[in-house]
Write a structure and sequence with these properties.
The protein is α/β, with parallel strands linked by helices. The protein has helices spanning 2-17, 31-34, 42-52, 71-76, 78-81, 96-104, 111-126, 151-167, 175-186, 205-220, and strands at 23-29, 59-65, 89-93, 131-135, 171-173.
């Protein structure tokens, strides 16, 4: 009996010294996410917030953003940039270029194709038991009177992502709604940029912190 208790005590002592493997979080997106790993980027800020909460060692944060990417670009590099890293959590933050490039270069993504590629991404990652967090595209212009050129399309694509989150029972970070609500309260002059963005799309420091604040609770959930 004493030997059994000693063995149990020894095993418990050994396991208590084994460091828990950190959860690997991949942020998968476009130039907004590519900039997220910069000193004032939203991924960096999430890391700083985790450190303040004493959780730094429990999470490994990986930025997988490439400028100009649309949803089908994410699909094409899914294996190399996400699945091969064997993440526990993936945050998908895409859609701005699928809408924006329709106006700038005529190379956007039609809504039906956007939905099919997005669902294909979801299917592949769910098959690998990855926890997913879907994000709606935040802004292409910060005016509050619906006069930004791409407001209509951006709202449609955001609605599509909300529907995909509901259909697949996934967490949703509704940045489109959060940005609109924030601008209604904090943009009385109806500026097209500089509230949460530098250029109507990419995040300024406040915008990066705003996104980090909205994402982190879903990562920790």
């Amino acid at each position: 009996m004493k030997k059994t208790l000693l063995l149990i005590s020894l095993v418990w002592s050994m396991t208590s010294f084994i460091q828990e493997k950190p959860k690997k979080v991949v942020f998968f997106g476009d130039s907004i996410t590519q900039a997220g790993v910069q000193p004032s980027g939203y991924i960096t800020k999430i890391g700083q917030m985790l450190e303040k909460q004493g959780l730094k060692d429990k999470y490994e944060l990986i930025g997988a953003g490439i400028g100009g990417n649309k949803v089908y670009d994410l699909y094409l590099r899914l294996e190399e940039d996400v699945l091969n890293k064997k993440p526990d959590i993936v945050v998908i933050f895409v859609g701005v270029n699928d809408v924006w490039h329709k106006a700038t270069s005529g190379t956007g993504t039609d809504l039906d194709k956007f939905e099919k590629f997005y669902q294909a991404l979801i299917n592949k990652m769910k098959a690998n038991n990855i926890k997913l967090i879907l994000c709606t595209p935040a802004a292409i212009g910060e005016r509050t009177d619906a006069s930004n050129q791409q407001d209509g399309d951006l709202n449609q694509y955001s609605k599509s992502i909300r529907n995909l989150a509901t259909k697949n029972e996934l967490a949703l970070c509704d940045l489109r709604k959060e940005f609109q609500d924030y601008n209604l309260k904090n943009n009385p002059e109806n500026k097209e940029k500089t509230i949460l963005t530098t250029d109507r799309v990419h995040l300024n420091e406040l915008g990066n912190q705003f996104v980090a604040d909205k994402m982190l609770p879903l990562i920790l959930k």
